[in-house]
Amino acid sequence: MHRILIVSDEEFLRDVIRLSLADMQADVRCASDVSDMQRMARRMLFDLVIVVGTSAFFSGCDVVRTLRPAGLKRPLVYVVAWQHAEQTVLSLLECGVDQYMTFPVSLQRLRTKIANALNRQL
Fold first, then answer.
1. What fold characterizes domain 2-121?
2. What secondary structure does DSSP assign to 1-54, as a single string?
3. What pLDDT is recorded for position 65?
4. How are beta strands 76-81 and 99-102 bridged, if at all?
5. Which of 5, 6, 95, 106, CA to CA, is 20 to 30 A from 64?
6. How far, in Å, CA of 6 to CA of 48, rounded?
7. Cβ of 39: how many Cβ atoms within 10 Å?
8. Cα separation of 112 and 95, whole Å?
């Protein structure tokens, strides 16, 4: 069973994405902040981490640096955020973020991308 972690300080967005993934064959967990994310990651290895929104406290790059040791491809990191400048998006992709999507995000599209990525990992 795949493990997915959703990280966002906005409970509503965490819940919407969690519910949209409910019928996938995955263990979906949620973290509300960086310390919560780190605590959970120490206890289990996640296959995919979804960072919803970005704040002054953490970004997709922070998640990659924190959860993915050098040279590893897991966990995959997806960022879903309000549209950023092209340079910001490029820097996210360069630091190792695997997918960047903007709000409003199609939950079906996000779900399909996640399912395809996880199936490729098998």
1. Rossmann fold (3.40.50)
2. -EEEEEE-S-HHHHHHHHHHTTTSSEEEEEESSHHHHHHHHHH---SEEEEES-
3. 81
4. parallel
5. 106
6. 9
7. 11
8. 24
